[in-house]
Specification:
The longest helix is centred in the last third of the chain and has 30 residues. The chain has two domains: 117 residues, 2-Layer Sandwich (Double Stranded RNA Binding Domain), CATH 3.30.160; 33 residues, no CATH class. By secondary structure, the protein is of the alpha+beta class. It has a seven-stranded mixed β-sheet.
Length: 154
């Protein structure tokens, strides 16, 4: 079986939200489905695919992922939008399920990257990280002290 997915960025997805996932068949009779996603960065996408247990080969315009019995080729179009073509033991619902799992992993990768950037840049802004706590909803709460190092009162 073969399934192709168009991964619509969230900015565009707001317009298409009423339609959800849309599917059709191309001229070769293959299922082509549009799925809402936030994926843009190829490194974060490759890391999110690895998080799902995929063996990944990555380049700037194309990423290949392979799971047991399923293979997916992710390609970026001229407009920057990724599309995924699934082959193997996969149907439309399984392909969409995989993309949603990858999208969730991508969100975690973005969160890690932002947290790393905050930790790295805090000292230059005069901030000292006092605590870091994971919340019940998988969020992270950082508490910074302002102006405590290298500053004298008075």
């Amino acid at each position: 079986m073969s399934v192709s997915l168009i991964l619509i960025p969230l900015a565009v997805a707001a317009v298409a939200a009423a339609h959800g996932s849309q599917s059709a068949r191309d001229e070769a009779g293959q299922v082509v489905c549009r799925v809402q996603t936030r994926m843009r960065d190829e490194k974060l996408l490759a890391d999110a695919l690895r998080e799902t247990g995929a063996a990944v080969t990555a380049g700037p315009q194309e990423i290949t992922a392979a799971w047991d019995g399923i293979r997916a080729g992710f390609a970026r179009g001229e407009d920057g939008v990724w599309s995924a073509h699934f082959t193997g033991q996969v149907d439309e619902s399984r392909a969409v399920e995989i993309v949603r799992a990858v999208d969730a992993g991508y969100g975690r990768q973005v969160q890690r990257a932002v947290l790393d950037r905050l930790r790295d840049r805090a000292p230059a802004a005069g901030l000292v990280l006092e605590s870091e706590t994971a919340t019940e909803d998988a969020g992270v709460r950082l508490v910074f002290a302002v102006g405590r190092e290298g500053h004298c009162a008075g």
